[in-house]
Design goal:
The protein is of the alpha/beta class and 314 residues long. 39% of the residues lie in helices and 25% in strands. Bound molecules: N,N,N-trimethyl-histidine (AVJ).
């Protein structure tokens, strides 16, 4: 982990357009800040997807073409607190569907908590937690010949460039069988007046989330970033449908990173790109899944049409 982190920071800060991978946001502080983000009034994504899981649970079950006499596996990639999924689990359980729920996450802590919650809230549901790499886990589940439903919610796909998303979905498909389903959460393209505040909230939680990346580099790689010398800057163009976050250097400065034995110069106004959050429409989704074995079978949107859950069939 540290070796890869060192390499990614080295490569990203040495590039002419400096960038850092957004996956490194999620250390202990970053996880807590992201939970806070999900509760912010400006961060509509979580509530919009929750609206679908709360008000169209029946529609989801119909679209997944499940039947009560067919035992299936429900696998959630990046389960986190499982708040949305609990709505679905509840209705499936109530209606007597037979299935196992496999929450997959990199955080053992999140999995333990989710398992404990489910044990008390939905004691009838079989929960098999899996900690680790998504694809290693899917490969290990491939021999189970039951029909599978994969959940990949929250527009987590949005951090991937489209080519990477295509590869990711292709790789998911190669671990599944024909007829298996992928329920993909996707934030929809909409005006900047709605998207931008979600990445620039008035309480400054998203800014803190962004700065935490530098704090993490300071702590784990022995760097001397002065956080006060950088400013959080989000951007979004509706035309392109992509939100990006940057850290902008407020002054000419040099930052030393001890574990890389290297210094990096920043000009005043120079930016580090720290996150890409893609937004979608049917055309973009079609383009992405074009190179995979999947077809769109259904689409469910929230009341505001901010967010969609696409159901893809292999
Ligand atoms: C977890 C990747 C969906 O891009 O909206 C929230 C992460 N970044 N605020 C997103 C995030 C800043 C989030 N995803």
């Amino acid at each position: 982990m540290t070796a890869q982190f060192k390499k990614d920071v080295y490569v990203g800060l040495s590039a002419p357009n400096k960038h850092l991978p957004s996956k490194y946001f999620y250390d202990k502080e970053g996880d807590a800040l992201f939970v806070e983000i999900m509760h912010l009034p400006e961060y509509y994504l979580t509530r919009a997807e929750m609206d679908i899981f709360e008000n169209q649970t029946d529609g989801i079950i119909k679209a997944l073409q499940l039947s009560p006499d067919l035992y299936f596996e429900l696998i959630e990639l990046g389960a986190g607190d499982g708040l949305k999924t609990k709505r679905l689990l509840h209705l499936l359980d109530q209606r007597g569907y037979k299935f196992d729920y496999f929450p997959v996450d990199i955080s053992q802590n999140a999995l333990d908590k989710l398992e404990a919650d489910l044990k008390s809230e939905l004691p009838g549901v079989s929960v098999i937690k899996k900690q680790g790499d998504y694809f290693q886990i899917l490969a290990s589940l491939k021999e189970i010949k039951k029909p599978k439903v994969i959940l990949f919610l929250g527009s987590n796909i949005g951090n991937m460039p489209d080519e990477v998303a295509t590869q990711f979905i292709y790789d998911l498909g190669s671990n599944l069988h024909p007829g298996d389903k992928l329920l993909l959460g996707a934030d929809l393209i909409k005006p900047a007046s709605i998207v931008l505040p979600a990445y620039n909230d008035s309480k400054g939680v998203t800014a803190a989330f962004n700065y935490n990346l530098l704090t993490r580099i300071n702590r784990e790689l022995g760097a001397d970033f002065d956080i006060g010398n950088f400013r959080h800057q989000p951007e979004y163009t509706e035309q392109e449908g992509v939100a990006r976050s940057f850290l902008v250097s407020q002054t000419d400065q040099t930052v030393r990173i001890k574990s890389l034995d290297k210094s990096f110069d920043f000009k005043k106004g120079e930016r580090i790109e720290t996150e890409v959050s893609r937004k979608y429409n049917d055309e973009v989704i079609h383009k992405i899944i074009g190179g995979t074995d999947f077809k769109i079978s259904h689409k469910l949107s929230d009341g505001n049409n901010y967010f969609a859950n696409y159901i893809l069939e292999r």
